[in-house]
Amino acid sequence: MSAAFDGALDDYIQHLRVERGLSKHTVDAYASDLVRFATWLASEQVSLERADEASVAGYLVALSRRGSSARTQARALSSIRGFFRFLVQDKRHRRDPTELLEGPRLIRKLPNVLSRDEVLRLLQAPAGAKPNRIRDRAMLHTMYAAGLRVSELVDLDLGDVSLDDGFVVVLGKGNKRRIVPIGAYARVAMTEYLTEVRPRWARPASRACFVTSRGKAMTRQAFWKIVKKYARAAGITKPISPHKLRHSFATHLLAGGADLRAVQTMLGHVDLATTQIYTHVTGEHLREMHERFHPRG
């Protein structure tokens, strides 16, 4: 990587962190994409100043020839486009070489969700009075009740939970906060965990809502294992991840007649189109039911 690219990339990463408030995970993904692009430019002996439409297009072709998926190519173009827009606004580059480039068309996959019965069996799986089961029950109920991302769930602080009012305050993507209701069942599960388990496990200075028996904050990886364990216990054979509970939350709300804008707000989606994909899932289900049971289906 050239010194010019290295310096520009450092400034862009700082811009993403400070001015745009993006998460570390998102910033790291952008940085990785751009480092790979810089490495390719260097192999082609093209400087940052000389990079143009042909350079970017050539890189995308190289990705395709390596077998990269359309989604990977689209993400790479998005990262490069954001970088050059920053350089143009900062008067470090004359024009954006990605301005006229289009990424590969993506076929948007419908989210694979759990049925209502499967969710109920999963939530009932950590039965009993053992401390770890009380905690796991609270986590599963809260994630499904609020449609949280797994990072949002494990990052909850004690101050983010208001059981009296029945909601949690979530720090989502872009460091944006939102308030989400959690419902009666999750409140009962959380109350039991916060009164009977957390006081025995948490370290005195800890603010993390969900902790392990050693007093450490719960991690995404550990919760992933918890979900898989209870899915097996519940007899759920389809592939499962914590994010499937979030998909299921949105799909079940919309299937029950919830307003699309309200679901968008609860999920923390900036773009309504991101939420609308769940309407296709419920639509597919309705069409299937019509074909199966309607005399003219």
CATH architecture of the largest domain: Orthogonal Bundle
Major sheet: size, sense and barrel closure? 3 strands, antiparallel
Give unreliable regions as ranges: 293-297
Radius of gyration: 23 Å
Quaternary status:
single chain
- CATH names the topology of the largest domain as hpI Integrase, Chain A
- Mean pLDDT over all positions: 85
- Strand line-up of the largest beta sheet: 1-2-3
Number of helices: 13
Order of helices and strands: HHHHHHHEEEHHHHHH
Helix content: 55-70%
Extended strand count: 3
Form type = elongated
Beta-strand residue percentage: under 5%
CATH class of the largest domain: Mainly Alpha
Which structural category do the helix and sheet elements fall into? Answer: mainly alpha
Structure, described:
It is built from 13 helices and 3 strands. With 297 residues, it is mainly α. It has 2 domains: 3-89, DNA polymerase, domain 1 (Orthogonal Bundle); 116-292, hpI Integrase, Chain A, CATH 1.10.443. It has a 3-stranded antiparallel sheet with strand order 1-2-3. Helix 2 (24-43) packs across helix 4, helix 3 (53-65) runs antiparallel to helix 4 (70-89) and helix 6 crosses helix 11 (242-255). The longest helix is centred in the last third of the chain and has 22 residues, at 272-293.
